[in-house]
Amino acid sequence: MRVNRIRHTLAAIFAALLIAAGLNGGTAHAGEAQDLDDKAALTVKAFQSDPDMGSMRMLLQRAEGVLILPQMLKAGFIIGGEGGSGVMLTRRGDSWSAPAFYTMGAGSIGLQFGAQASEVVLVFMTKRAVDAVLFNKVKLGADASVAAGPIGVGVEAGTTTNFREDVYSYSKSKGLFAGASVEGAVIEQRESLNRAYYGTNASPEDILFKHKVDNDGAKALREALNTMLRTRT
User: Which of the residues 121, 132, 138, 231 has an alpha carbon 20 to 30 A from that of 183?
Assistant: First the structure.
């Protein structure tokens, strides 16, 4: 009886994670994409106003790109998983490209118990890392090095010049989960959302580098990121 209950719980966990990551095979709509874009803007604003995120603001000023996931769900009992959808933008001078839609997810086995919902921002410091996401399905820690960005008031002053990783992750979490990490997570484009948002089969390269498409719905998100670029801590 207890085994069956655990199995049903795990089934529910993974169903929720797959839906959150956009892997449930449903048809994407422009409204879904716009909702994700709007939530990403709110995430940026929340990080912008957090005094502990000074190092992230400094890193963004020399970043190659950023991936914003407004909600990453992680849950498990021995076997766990996490998933969420987000938007990626590349930096061009003092502004940002249009957003391309991605999903990030991972599974794990080990001593773990709990549930967690997180807002996650990944700051891409190298063009190599951005290109890896652009042209491939990327596994963090394998295809691109990743580390948790330091947080805390004043932490940016003595540490950001020593950063050497491809990607730095920042998160705000609600809930309890032992050993939560983006290490080993896989990033993959969401073609259906890109197509719905732009009304054409635009590739991430078309969106992020060739600038062939745009959408006025991304204005709030880009303004939030531009405010971060102008902020000095």
Answer: 231
* Cβ–Cβ under 8 Å, residues 67 and 86: yes
Q: What integer pLDDT is reported at residue 99 of this predicted model?
A: 97
What is the per-residue pLDDT across 31-83, written as a single tens digit (0 to 9) for each?
A: 999 999 999 999 999 999 888 888 888 899 889 999 999 988 765 554 455 67
Phi and psi for 207 in degrees, rounded to 5? Answer: -80, -50
Element (H, E) at 18: helix 2-21
Q: Which residues lie closer than 8 Å to 171 by C-beta, 6 or more apart?
A: 72, 118, 119, 120, 121
Instruction: Compute how many other C-beta atoms are within 10 angstroms of the C-beta atom of residue 170.
Output: 21
| Tokens coding 135 | 């042209």
Task: Name the residue with tokens 């990030």.
Answer: 104
β-partners of residue 188 are 103
- Name the 3-class secondary structure at 195: helix
The larger pLDDT score, comparing residue 85 to residue 79, is at: 85
Structure tokens at 104: 């990030």
Query: In this structure, are residues 64 and 90 in contact, taking their beta carbons and an 8 Å threshold?
Result: yes
Question: What pLDDT is attached to residue 37?
Answer: 96
